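DATA SHEET
Item: assembly model
Revision: 1
Owner: S.N.
Input lines:
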Amino acid sequence: MTAARAQDDASIAYFGQRSQALGFPRSGLSTIDADLQPFADAVRDRYGRIVNRLTSVAADIAVDAGWLEHLVALDLGDHITFTRRGIEPERTLDGFVCGYVHNLTPNNWRSIIYTTTTTRSI
Amino acid sequence: MIGDQGPFDPTGFIEGDPSTYPVPLGGDPYAAGQFWTLTASATIGGDALVAGDLLYVVSFGRDYGAGTYGGGSYGWNEFGPWDAFEVGFRGYGATLPAWERPAPPYTGCPMGDRMPGWRIVIEAQYLSTIAELRRYGEGTYGSGVYGDTGVHTDPAVVPWNDITEENFGVLINVGNTDGNPVVAMSEARFDFRDAAARLFSMTQPESWYGPRVGTIIRVGVLEPSLEYHPLFVGRIETVNDIHDVPPRHVEVDAFGMIFDTVQSLPGWSRPAETADVRLRETGLASGYQWAPPHPFPAEPGPSLLALPANNVVARNALDLAAISAQWYVSAYPDGRLRVRPWPENGVGGQSLNVADCAEHDGETDPNRVVFGDINYLEDGDQVVYGQPVVSVFEAVLLSPSADLTGDMGELLNIVDLDNVQSGALR
């Protein structure tokens, strides 16, 4: 049997075993044997320590008209950095846009931008 | 007069020299919506144009010192009249295939006072008059479909029709909420107040010349510079005409083009091949035509194992082939399918810098007060473990709310993979 497993022991110690998310575990792949373990390692490295997440950000041009030029060009995979101000030192969460909802009505444009965080929690 | 101003030979055209500009019919002043049809190729405003493309007059305001005292109005007069010294020209690719053709300037509706100069354009692709339909005796044998209503004719030549209503509502849903490599189908809901029932008809022959179920529909916005940005392109799935209480209200739901790949492929099998070939062939088998530019991230893609014969749905086979290559299938905002690396690696795209308030201290502009409503879920107290900010962003966007969670919903610290040779999961 050819199969690949990658695990993050430090993350397991913190959070317990987590193997079911984002459609994983995956079976029936056409990935050749030589690529299977590097694939598993890459997913573990990307998602093995992401607990504190920025799941969505609301955009409203009535709040900040600066959104407009970004909303017209919004696309999956756009990089996003979220800063929570007023704490020292300032902290950020980085991630990518993985989905969005645009709501356009006369004189307003509101959006919800869903993100997948890349900043590790531990 | 706005609209078509006739032909124009751009051979002697020089930007900045009004003596070489096309002139409106009847000696009228320049105004928004006037256009000329080019009779020769030219590069204008950086756009390479060919004969048959259109040239629109535009204006972005009178500069200080331009013109003579009293010779115009200071500031920006959005729709004209404009003097020659305050206009420029922007090309429009009328000869492009329909899927690359932007919405024409000044179509659609203004988006409102908060977005001065911006326009929303909702268009549907159909033949709007009987003159556009093919009739008996026209064309050559096999070159089209007689009496076709636009849904099945060559999509490259079927025109886009502006169906924007003043009272619009558009809800667009793209992608998913968690970064899953299987991307949900893009959807859009269009709300129209169609008082005169001009858009959708139940009866023939009116329904032949209008949008209906199956029609391609798109929505985009035009910047004040007239640059077009598509937001959604899809096919009308349902039309809900609500007329219990006037005015007539029409809800139109449309699905993105990934929906076209939801086709059964009985006994589908593939030899060992590279991922780009697997995806291309699977898409073609479902009837989807991959559109240029090249929709795959690498040429050639990684090698994949042979697939034994099986009954599959093309969309599922596409996703499985993509994931096998560490890719995922999604769509450009203009509707074309594309395949990109998964997880996203930050190649390309824009960068958004978002904050929960403009300035923590010293907020002076009452119009800029933002309630930074951060919604914590689970153990959200340990919200941010990132790196301190070491640079000052030039443009920070303010978000009225952000959802932060700590629920381990996307945590994968054990990753199991099996391929078609290894059988079922352990």
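QC remark: Chain B has four domains: 3-95, 100-258, 262-341, 351-426.
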